[in-house]
Amino acid sequence: MSRIGRLPIPIPAGVTVVADGQAVSVKGPKGELALVVSNPITVSIEDGHVLVTRPNDERQSRSLHGLTRTLINNQIIGVTVGYTKGLEIVGTGYRAAQKGTSVEFALGFSHPVVVEPPVGIVLTVESVNKLTVSGIDKQAVGEVAANIRKIRKPEPYKGKGVRYAGEIVRRKAGKSGK
Fold first, then answer.
1. How much is the pTM?
2. Where in the chain is the domain with CATH 3.90.930.12?
3. Nearest to 2 by CA among 37, 51, 75, 74
4. Which CATH superfamily is domain 82-162 in?
5. Rounded CA gap, 147 and 116, in Å?
6. Contact assessment for residue 4 and residue 66, using Cβ atoms and an 8 Å cutoff
7. What does each C-alpha distance from 144 to 133, 137, 168 come to in angstroms?
8. What is the architecture, at CATH level 2, of domain 7-79?
9. Each residue's pLDDT tens digit in the chain (178 positions)?
């Protein structure tokens, strides 16, 4: 049996979880999220806990069991605490500036790059070279952070570019002079 999938998920105070057939909705102080559970997996709520069960030991059921439990747990954490992802900008002249809800980047291109956040995501510029992506949906926060990093990935010779907070960039030696 799945070690992760069989663990019950405690429902914290202020959070309501509704399991209606294959649809699961989680509502909390920060917002509301919904999930459609794949077919063989069933979700039930019993005495303040969410239980995820599978009908058999087929390969697909086993693979979806732990995944479904983790997705529901991530939603509960998202509506109570939320998720944040930090980004750092490294390089001479590289910077970010807040323009309303969007962020304008100067990353060595001939033009500034403006990033509009999708619904439910907040971009915050803490300093000219630090940025925070936050929201209640873990997947959306990670995707927005990855798309911002993709604009100018850290290059291996000088380490210039956009990187995750705490990310270690492996550096190459470069050319050696005679």
1. 0.90
2. 7-79, 82-162
3. 51
4. Ribosomal protein L6 (3.90.930.12)
5. 11
6. yes
7. 7, 11, 20
8. Alpha-Beta Complex (3.90)
9. 568 889 999 999 999 999 998 999 999 999 999 999 999 999 999 999 999 999 999 999 999 999 999 999 999 999 999 999 999 999 999 999 999 999 999 999 999 999 999 999 999 999 999 999 999 999 999 999 999 999 999 999 999 999 999 999 999 998 886 6
